[in-house]
């Protein structure tokens, strides 16, 4: 599941022209980490509503920023001893068992948390990058 923010590529091109590609990570990475932390916090609050053991909440992980298709990005995933990454998609979209559609309590929670935190994510990334300029 991805969130696409329009205008990011243009912003990155302008930042590269101002600071150079080699200096871009020092400028953008703290903003990406702050934004991802906010999204992870929102994910955790959405997952609390239907938690059982809390493993899905405990295994939310923020990766280090990397270049993905030429754009600096950061990934939030699930890593841990209970391997919750295997069932997150079942919880998000539901599943079929014996011909019957099963909709768990947390259906749509990832999409909902992304929608809730989208504006705040943009604001925090803009603020962090603006502070460095």
Question: Can you tell me about this structure?
Answer:
The chain has helices at 8-19, 24-48, 55-58, 85-93, 109-132, and strands spanning 60-62, 66-68, 71-73, 76-78, 95-97, 100-102. It has 133 residues and is of the alpha+beta class. It has one domain. A two-stranded antiparallel sheet has the order 1-4. A two-stranded antiparallel sheet has the order 2-3. Strands 5-6 form a two-stranded antiparallel sheet. α2 runs antiparallel to α5. The longest helix is centred in the N-terminal third of the chain and has 25 residues, at 24-48. The protein is elongated and about 60 Å long. Residues 1-5 have low confidence and may be disordered.
Compact description:
The chain has 133 residues and is α+β, with helices and mostly antiparallel strands.
């Amino acid at each position: 599941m991805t969130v696409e923010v329009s205008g990011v590529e243009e912003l990155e091109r302008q930042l590269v022209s101002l600071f150079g590609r080699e200096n871009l990570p020092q400028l953008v990475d703290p903003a990406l980490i702050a934004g991802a932390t906010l999204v992870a916090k929102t994910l955790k609050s959405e997952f609390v509503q239907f938690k059982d053991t809390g493993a899905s909440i405990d295994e939310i992980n923020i990766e280090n920023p990397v270049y993905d298709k030429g754009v600096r990005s950061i990934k939030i995933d699930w890593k841990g001893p209970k391997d919750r990454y295997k069932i997150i998609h079942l919880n998000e979209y539901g599943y079929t068992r014996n011909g019957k559609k099963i909709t768990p309590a947390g259906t749509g929670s990832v999409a909902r948390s992304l929608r809730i935190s989208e504006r705040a994510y943009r604001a925090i990334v803009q603020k962090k990058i603006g502070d460095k300029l």
